[in-house]
Amino acid sequence: MEIRIKRVYESPATNDGYRVLVDRVWPRGRTKEEVQADRWLKTLAPSTRLRKWFNHDSDKWEAFKHHYFEELRGQQDAIEQLTQEAGQGPITLLYSARDTEHNQAVALREYLTREFIENH
């Protein structure tokens, strides 16, 4: 499974594959037509409490991932659904954060890659 990440403010591409928005809140200033997400999985976004605590502080990145992965372990149905619906093609995780290195899509890709490799 190929998992890509992309900001929702970037133009959709034909090779994005299955596009999944993984923000808890709809991206500011974007319409559904602009985002072109195949699915909006709010349940795979970090909890509001965790998101506010992290506040995209790179010093908290490792702790954020640890807590976020714990939250994701409770969302196995959504994760299974995501991987099944995506089929064999690429998945593009869409996010709206400005920080391209420290955001939930980067962490989720790491989590999905680990889980998929370990379980398949």
UniProtKB/TrEMBL annotation:
Which Pfam families does this chain map to?
A: DUF488-N3i
Q: Which domain of life is it from?
A: Bacteria
InterPro entries per UniProt: YeaO-like (IPR052552)
Name of the protein described by the UniProt record? DUF488 domain-containing protein
